[in-house]
Design goal:
Blueprint: H1 4-17, E1 22-26, H2 42-47, E2 55-58, E3 63-67, H3 72-78, E4 85-88, H4 94-101, E5 107-110, H5 117-128, E6 133-136, H6 141-145, E7 158-159, H7 162-165, H8 169-182, E8 187-190, H9 193-200, E9 202-203, E10 216-220, E11 225-228, H10 236-242, E12 246-249, H11 254-258, E13 265-268, H12 275-284, E14 287-290, H13 295-300, H14 304-331, H15 339-351, E15 356-359, E16 364-367, E17 390-396, E18 398-400, E19 403-404, E20 407-413, H16 418-435, E21 439-440, H17 445-457, E22 468-470, E23 479-484, E24 503-506, E25 509-512, E26 516-519, E27 522-529, E28 538-543, H18 561-578, H19 584-593
Parallel strand pairs: 1-5, 3-4, 5-6, 8-13, 11-12, 13-14
Antiparallel strand pairs: 1-2, 2-3, 7-9, 8-10, 10-11, 15-18, 16-17, 17-20, 18-19, 21-28, 22-23, 24-27, 25-26, 27-28
Helix pairs in contact: 4-5, 14-15, 16-17
Domain Creatinase N-terminal: 7-138
Family: Belongs to the peptidase M24B family.
Domain Peptidase M24: 310-527
């Protein structure tokens, strides 16, 4: 198993032993998570792909890996094209590919704990057209050939105190119970890890970069709940916090518990609950009510306590990033920095405040052509020196108990080319257009996406990722249901109406393959706005992230007066908010970095 070729060969042999003609390997876990524990990194172990979204299909004579536009370059660098064909999503799908490549009468395996029921139906229909069959496996064949597969984490649960959550778990459970009553349902299945963490005001450390615990929950119409989690993960403080209204069971008891819901009306989320959950409910004779997990929207709309915590976390994190940018301005021109050394220094600045619980994702520390890979992940093998007259892009964030941060800055080390300044300024103009947007209640993120792309489009340019994603409160850095993304882009959530209290990212970019990449990202809060004469409620965005934007990459002649005023006002607030939080030498540098553009 020393090479990925060996692993692919071993999987094919295992499939042959099971009389399967193929198998689908998604990058997710039993909770349909985006970020998964080490034990669930089957796609990475099998193929070498290190991105956070993708799937693979293995057939006897061919294999394919499926990724979206964020990973077009990355997948080619990490996955051997001699053994895997590269497939682009949403231009194609696993179901379409199987319809074209699976043999007649083929038996294609899938793990029902790693796919939604909708995916299963689509794949089954596609295979049926060929006379082929989709077969559920009882145990995952990748696990059978993975000799040193990590065990699921045994980290303890943590209490998220009401003072930071802003609402006790008892009230959250009662709100879910009221929702169930209004819909004539008896119980809701919560299988998304962040929904469970939010509803019960608990956190965990079972998934790198996301403070959640491996668990399932059933919330009942009487506001009680059953929590299915490894019992040794709970200490007395957590048990006392959960109280008598939350019954504790071993995580392994979840599937049998579903079998006891005969005659009950059970809410299950078709996007977040895996096919195996639906199959268990069907077998039990439960009435299934397909609806979105009732915690999802409530979790996305932050309360005043969570918003205050976010602001505090953003200021703290902005101070750490500003110190890093100051340090970078001194050290990078010397020519000795690499992507890894820069990322390590940024982490050290974040750790100095003593409140960092984890990063919110692996830092994207990308120099030169690596910055053209939107979700680049630096390693010892790819580590690149930060060179003079090149762009360095750093996308990073922290997990603090009062908030989750995510921010990207693009820095020129040395002198930019005219093209770099043009592209950076077009990205900045799009960022400003979105930050300044006013929109009526009911507006979807997909309707706003064009605002951020318009100046790139005018030059025949674009970027292959969404413009904004939701962000949790000491939870997932990628949180639904809201998103700012084009319709039909393959990113779920773009059709969700934006509501006051939602937090999203604002992150347009531009990527020139083999040369450089640009992204400017701040987090923003949806808030009501007073507009004279408005006939509907109007919303806008409050910017939450504060750190200087590199003035050396701005072509001021491309900005109109309103855009220049926005940059100057933003930088004035950065200086006011961050200045008192950094040492005097950094404060002096910050004043220069934030001086008005007119003084350039």
């Amino acid at each position: 198993m020393s090479t990925y070729e060996d692993r692919l060969k071993a999987l094919r042999e295992e499939l042959a032993r099971r009389r399967l003609d193929g198998f689908v390997v998604p990058l997710t876990d039993e909770h349909m998570s985006e970020y998964v524990g080490a034990y669930a990194q089957r796609l990475a172990w099998l193929t070498g792909f290190q991105g956070s979204a993708g799937s693979a299909v293995v057939l006897p004579a061919e294999a394919a890996i499926f990724v979206d536009g964020r990973y077009t370059l990355q997948v080619r660098e990490q996955v051997d094209g001699a053994h895997w064909s590269y497939q682009s999503v949403p231009q194609t799908s696993i179901a379409q590919w199987l319809r074209e490549h699976a043999g007649a009468d083929a038996r294609i395996g899938y793990d029902p704990w790693l796919h939604t029921r909708g995916w299963v139906a689509a794949a089954r229909a596609a295979l049926a057209a060929k006379g082929a069959e989709l077969v559920a496996v009882e145990t995952n064949p990748v696990d059978a050939i993975w000799p040193d597969q990590p065990r699921p984490s045994d980290a303890r649960l943590l209490v998220q105190p009401d003072a930071l959550a802003g609402k006790p778990s008892s009230i959250k459970r009662q709100e879910i119970a009221d929702w169930l009553d209004a819909h004539g349902a008896d119980v809701a299945v919560l299988s998304a890890l962040d929904s469970i963490a939010w509803a019960l005001n608990i956190r965990g450390a079972d998934v790198d970069r996301t403070p959640v615990a491996l668990a399932y929950a059933l919330v009942h119409a009487d506001a009680t709940a059953d929590l299915f989690v490894a019992p040794d993960k709970l200490d007395d403080e957590v048990r006392q916090h959960l109280g008598n209204a939350v019954r504790i069971h071993d995580r392994a008891a979840f599937q049998p518990a579903l079998g006891q819901l005969s005659g009950k009306c059970v809410v299950a989320d078709p996007e977040r609950a895996v096919a195996a959950i639906f199959e268990a409910l069907d077998a039990a004779g439960a009435t299934i009510f397909e609806a979105r997990d009732p915690a999802v929207l409530s979790k996305a709309v932050k309360n005043e306590t969570e918003i205050a915590g976010h602001r505090a976390a953003q200021a703290r994190d902005g101070a750490a990033l500003t110190r890093f940018l100051h340090w970078l301005s001194i050290e990078a021109p010397k020519g000795g920095l690499t992507e890894l050394s820069a990322a390590a220094k940024l982490l050290a600045f974040r750790e100095e405040n003593g409140l960092l619980r984890d990063l919110s994702f692996d830092t994207i520390s990308a120099a030169g052509p690596n910055a053209a890979i939107p979700h680049y992940r630096v390693s010892a093998q790819s580590d690149r020196r930060i060179e003079i007259d090149s762009i360095y892009l750093v996308d990073s964030g922290g997990q603090y108990q009062d908030g989750t941060t995510d921010v990207t800055r693009t820095i020129i080390v040395g002198t930019p080319t005219a093209e770099m300044k043009d592209r950076f300024t077009r990205v900045l103009k799009g960022h400003i257009a979105l930050a300044r947007a006013l929109f009526p209640e009911g507006t979807r993120g997909s309707q706003l996406d064009t605002l951020a792309r318009q100046y790139l489009w005018a030059a025949g340019l674009d970027y292959a990722h969404g413009t904004g994603h939701g962000v949790g409160a000491f939870l997932s850095v990628h949180e639904g249901p809201q998103r700012i993304a084009p319709v039909g882009s393959g990113y779920a959530g773009g059709d969700e109406p934006l509501r006051a209290g939602m937090i999203l990212s604002n992150e347009p970019g531009y990527y020139k393959s083999g040369d450089y990449g640009i992204r400017i990202e701040n987090l923003v809060l949806v808030e009501p706005r007073d507009v004279a004469g408005a006939e509907k409620r109007v919303f806008g965005f409050e910017t939450l992230t504060f750190a200087p934007i590199d003035r050396n990459l701005i072509d001021v002649t491309l900005l109109d007066s309103g855009e220049r005023a926005w940059v100057d006002a933003y930088h004035a607030k950065v200086a006011d908010l961050i200045g008192p939080l950094v040492p005097l030498d950094v404060r002096d540098w910050l004043e220069g970095a934030c001086r008005p553009l007119e003084g350039a």
